[in-house]
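> example.struct
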């Protein structure tokens, strides 16, 4: 069990809640709460804040989450592989409005490109037989 998991379990028990009861309040599965408590999985920062809200613990879990993992470049053996990326995703740099605007522009460009490719694929006959059939049909209408 990691420090975050120990604190989560301590706060949950102090409220007299089972994993199932907390999971229902927060809208997660009981197994996910168990994964957080055992350190098998690391919650995102916003999830830690949501747990704080439902446990009435102020910002205890969110602060602990930040303290333990933001800026860390190594993951413990029990962390999910995504935990290595989480500090980068939650950094202040990526949260800045300018970076978010740039990411939105990039997402838009990728969507536009994907739509253009899909249209080009739909408009292009796939084989010579398809083209000759289309030509014959066009000639028969003339």
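> example.seq
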């Amino acid at each position: 069990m990691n420090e975050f998991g120990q604190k989560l379990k301590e706060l949950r028990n102090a409220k007299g809640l089972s994993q199932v009861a907390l999971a229902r309040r927060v809208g997660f599965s009981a197994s996910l709460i168990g994964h957080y408590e055992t350190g098998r999985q690391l919650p995102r920062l916003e999830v830690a804040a949501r747990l704080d809200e439902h446990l009435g613990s102020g910002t205890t879990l969110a602060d602990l989450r930040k303290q333990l993992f933001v800026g860390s470049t190594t993951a413990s053996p029990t962390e999910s592989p995504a935990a290595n990326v989480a500090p980068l995703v939650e950094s202040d740099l990526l949260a800045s409005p300018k970076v978010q605007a740039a990411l939105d522009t990039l997402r838009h460009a990728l969507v536009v490109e994907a739509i253009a490719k899909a249209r080009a694929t739909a408009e292009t006959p796939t084989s010579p037989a398809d083209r000759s059939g289309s030509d014959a049909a066009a000639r028969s209408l003339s």
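> remarks
Residues 3-90 form a domain with the 434 Repressor (Amino-terminal Domain) fold (CATH 1.10.260.40).
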